[in-house]
Amino acid sequence: MPATLPTGRLGMAGPSLRMARRRLPGLVAVGLAVAGGAALLTVAAVLAQTGLTSHLGPQRLADADILVAATQTHPVPEDVDLALPERETVDAGLLDTVAAVPGVEAAVADVAFAARIDEPALGAADGHAWDTAALTGAALDGRAPGPDEAVLDTATADAAGLTIGDTLQVTTPTGTTGLRVTGLTDAPGLHTDAATARALAGLDADEADFIAVRAEPGADAETVAAALRDALPALDVATGDARGDVERLAEATATGDLVALAFSMGGTIVLLVGFITAGALGVAVAGQRRDLALLRAVGATPRQVRRLIAAQASAAAAVALVPGIAAGHLLAGAFTGFLADSGMLPAGLPLARGPIGPLAVAAVLLLTVQVAARGAARRTSRLPATAAVAESRVEPAAPGPVRTTIGFILLIAAAAQSILPLAVPGETAFIAAVTATLTAVIGFALAGPVLVGLLTRRAAKRLDAHTPAPMWLAVKNNRAYARRTAGAVAVLALAVGLTITQVFSQTTYTAVTAAEIEAGATADATVTGPVSAADLAALGEEPGVDAAVGVAQTTVLRALGDGGVESFPALAFTPGVGAVADLGAAAGDLADLRGDTVAVSAASARLWGVDVGDRVDLVLPNGTEASPEVVATYERGFGFGSIVLAADLLDGPRFYDAALVAGDAGAVSAWAAAVPGLAVATGAAVPQAPAGMTPDQWISLMATLAMTGYVLLGTANGLVAATSRRRTEFASLRAVGATPRQVQAMVTREALVTAAVAVGAGLAFSVLPMAILGLGFLGKPWPQGPLWVIPATVAVAVLIAWAATAIPTRRALAGPPTAALAVD
Fold first, then answer.
1. Which candidate among 19, 25, 165, 348 keeps its CA 20 to 30 Å from the CA of 389?
2. Which residues form the ABC3 transporter permease C-terminal domain (predicted)?
3. pLDDT higher at 690 or 137
4. Exposure of 161 by Cβ count < 10 A (0-12 exposed, 13-18 middle, 19+ buried)?
5. Lowest mean pLDDT: which of 346-355, 521-530, 595-604, 664-673?
6. Domain spans in the chain, listed from the N-terminal domain onward
């Protein structure tokens, strides 16, 4: 009778671990792959948790116990809600409701307004209603302001040489007015009474930014906040550090980008972990093929064999998770530091390091390893016992026709994606070019054994009696073990293709954007600073000035048919954009860009299915829903964005970020010299042509390089493990007369052949689509960017392929061949 094997999920643990101890190199490769993946995935998890749960804390309103505000996000079904970049107001009439809640001692409506103090050495200032400063205990020298009066902070008053009783001229989006100074305070900014603040902000009498609450002495703020939530269920009630999200809206909005970045990174990392881990497990399974065959011969079921391999992989992964997650926390701190330095993230945002992130990382990776392990063991486990024993010493038969067919289909699809930039405009072409590389590598991984077999078969036909023995053996080995070679080639090709594609897609995007801005930004001068509508009118009347057009940079959301939304940066222009910019008109007339209208890039119009005269559903920066009419389409969507708004579409009066001017730049400079807080630049400074990669692109590049490093680590791990398990093969060659130097020469040539095929495939999968991208958008049929990246990437790939085989080969040849033959 055959031996009885243990059953159950834990029954194979003993045999699994005993076999693992004899075949450690393959499992070490699995552990290193999991550790690297855990580090990268932990970075993504920390970023996501930080974006969802961390707060900056209040500053000006630190002494207000509770803040009541409108919800500053737009709901997205089955996804993270999108933060709104501009404040949605609340009904100031709710003050009575708030004050009536038990535990509330005082409540005031906060009203903020943007201001420019027209005094020498001054300029932009933040304005607020004095009631909020009084609620938070701000010191006051003088008296509180009344109508047309102001309290000024001491630092600003000293800089302007102002004191109590003086009058200062203040410009706001609603116009210019004189305010008499009635007091000085330690609270930063300019303070007026509530009615004046509303008038200067352009708000109605029943509007406020939010409501600040002071709890009664001894009352628990959280208890009072809970009562406020019950009384005002449609509003957000913030306590603790979450008050900072209400007060510092722009910085709070920036933290929401972390979530999108984290999910984008996380999905790619999980895919790479599966790819690398599957390759490492393939090596581990190949090293145990004889042991697994013997188990099948004594009665092990296919399920037991798969469970055995999965148990080994899970044990290696569990050991690797701890250092990997710890390293990920260190990397997350460094990465967020870079984000803060680049201005992408508010400085001082605390990282969220709770247990949820590590647990999620561990669960995802263990599941990934289980799936990869069972997949790697599937073929070996399903072979009949006699066939498994017979195949345990040779390369498995050629892969099935289904796998190969799918691989060739993916390669053809990748080729079609690569040429899309010649036919499809806009960012869709960039996305297609980038994804073509990944599609091609996956296709090559599936069809690789057949392709490598064809290449090595052709190479073998060129061998003759004059071929050196190491080269002859190297070609024959690569042909006989085409599956093993193809696995290493696919991962190396992924590293080469991923690096080149990501670098040149970013640099090409930058080049295309810069070219469109240079061609389309035709203004003779740009006035920057807080520019009001009155400033535009005055500037337009100056002798020598032909047109002055205000421009504001903002963000809008486009509603999708399934209830989702997508976010777009947008420029909003006052009438006359055609005089200061050439957007490359495609249809319609940009002169009609006024009132309830927008213009859309031609590429986006085709993608969205809209044309001139149609309406597009938008969510404005403060959450207001609108359906403006499309009055024009334009070609320069990279330089000017997917959508351009009429400034009238934005709610309420506002300062413009800049004024684009056509006419005499000298006249513009003379006019601006008399207006504190404004500066003049020659030419068009908005939109700004990129001089290099943007912070967003640098972040994407850093993430890509980190993942490429992980791929290269996985490649090295796999090659080391695959070479280490060839000790018996090397010993057999030495037993028949080969010298250690000849064996090393053979392995070196194998590595070079592997590297050559991988580099050729990686370059074909990346350089071709990047060259077509340059041809389609810039008319230059080569990758746009630093060309040294290509030879540098090739050199790294070749070095890793050589080192990962030469070093373990030298170790394998250290002892006598008889010892290796006896061990195996």
1. 25
2. 265-378, 710-815
3. 137
4. exposed
5. 346-355
6. 1-53+253-394, 66-252, 407-520+691-824, 522-682
